[in-house]
UniProtKB/TrEMBL annotation:
Residues 351-372 are annotated as: Disordered. GO terms for molecular function: (3R)-hydroxyacyl-[acyl-carrier-protein] dehydratase activity. It comes from Exophiala xenobiotica. GO terms for cellular component: mitochondrion. It comes from the Eukaryota. Coiled coil: none annotated. This is MaoC-like domain-containing protein.
Length: 406
């Protein structure tokens, strides 16, 4: 009798949220789950939905899958081919109206300028209401997004190779990480999504009458970029005002600094060059009405390019007429406060005395001796001066004669 009672079961069907009391009969396995494999948003939130398919590979499991786990590892379609040298040159010209740029040899891929190539022009059906890419949105309710920061690794110093000699590129982009801050029942909870994009040496081959691209075997990416985005159900108060509500003291005594004002034209040009349709960089009326943000926001990727260009100029001054040149190997940055259009900002850099455990580490042997630099953006005047973006760079030292190392 005791053995018979042990066969009685109470099991929970999570998808229905109710408890089923089983009789004295063999327990049937749970049906295989339907999991979302892609999210397709239209300009109407009510039409947003997920395409489902039966998972025939995974066995039934009593372990609850993490929220939004269907996005992890999702690969995004990206273009392949040759570097867009025209776009890259256009970005350099646009920045030249605002910054004192370092010498820029032709056909060199400057750090951060990979963002001007291999961006897909999406069909409007794959855009959210705010014009942003809908392919990795966590769900219908998460309709607000902002850029949090990113990391870049350059496997070869830009000073020692050209886009002309390394023209064929295969890009691979995927959702590499998902984190949830807070309880999903709380309206203030945020979903942090990381996209990783690799720019590999590519090779083209023919398959069933069409050409395909793949990374060359046994090669490292020219560039690996991690992009951190924050998805929200409501916009926090910190974004709804141009007033500085908290102040973070910026580093002191920069080696090199430049002051600029990001203009509407610069934001428009960067959006066009990077094929970024997000309306918070383009449409003031929409930004104020839907996001509740008073002014257009400076793109996160543009912020990175501005920091890298000021650092490149600083390294040019630092090298002077000596025998060495300096190239960024790693760069990471984090947005602490919003940067608004027509708002004066100062971009600065200086050599760092110590390393940090949070620095991105190379998986390969450095191409030369390393130095660490701080890069940051500050805004405000006098007592209202505050750090807005914090960055770090690992810089390798090379011979100007074209040899790695010194």
């Amino acid at each position: 009798m005791q053995s018979s009672l042990c066969c009685e079961t109470l099991w929970l069907v999570r998808t229905a949220g109710i408890v089923m009391r089983g009789a004295l009969r063999p327990i049937k396995p749970l049906p295989r789950r339907l999991i979302p494999v892609s999210v397709r948003h239209t300009t109407s939130d009510s039409q947003a939905g997920a395409q489902l398919q039966l998972d025939n590979q995974q066995p039934p499991s009593d372990v609850q899958k993490p929220p939004f786990g269907f996005l992890k590892g999702c690969r995004l379609r990206t273009p392949h081919g040759i570097w867009d040298s025209r776009n890259i040159h256009s970005l350099l010209r646009a920045l030249g109206d605002h910054l004192d740029l370092a010498h820029s040899p032709n056909m060199k891929l400057l750090p951060g300028f990979q963002q001007a190539s291999f961006n897909l022009l999406l069909n409007e059906s794959l855009l959210c209401e705010d014009g942003a890419d809908a392919r990795y949105v966590p769900g219908e309710g998460w309709k607000f997004r902002v850029w949090v920061g990113g990391r870049m690794h350059f496997s070869m110093p830009w000073t020692h190779w050209s886009m002309e000699d390394n023209s064929d590129v295969c890009t691979v982009e995927k959702v590499s990480d998902i984190k949830i801050t807070g309880d999903l029942a709380n309206e203030d909870t945020k979903v942090m999504i990381t996209l990783t994009k690799d720019y590999f040496p590519g090779q083209k081959f023919q398959n069933k009458g069409s050409f395909k691209w793949s990374p060359k075997k046994h090669t490292l990416p020219y560039v690996t970029e991690k992009k951190h985005l924050c998805f929200m159900r409501k916009v926090p108060a910190s974004l709804r005002s141009v007033d500085v509500r908290r102040k973070i003291a910026p580093p002191v005594e920069p080696f090199h600094a430049q002051t600029m004002v990001p203009s509407p034209a610069l934001l428009f040009r960067f959006s066009a060059i990077s094929k970024n349709d997000h309306r918070i960089h383009l449409d003031t009326e929409f930004t104020q009405r839907v996001y509740g943000i008073p002014k257009l926001l400076v793109h996160g990727p543009l912020t990175a390019v501005l920091m890298l260009e000021v650092l490149r100029k600083g390294l040019e001054i630092y090298a002077g007429a000596g025998p060495s040149t300096y190239a960024v190997e790693h760069f990471q940055y984090k947005n602490l406060m919003p940067l608004f259009v027509d708002e004066k900002i100062t971009i600065a850099c200086k050599k760092s005395d110590t390393s940090n455990s949070d620095d991105e580490q190379s998986t390969s042997k450095p191409a030369g001796p390393e130095e660490r630099w701080q890069v940051w953006i500050q805004k405000g005047e006098g007592e209202n001066t505050t750090l807005a973006v914090r960055g770090k760079a690992i810089v390798t030292v090379h011979s100007k004669e074209g040899r790695y190392g010194v």
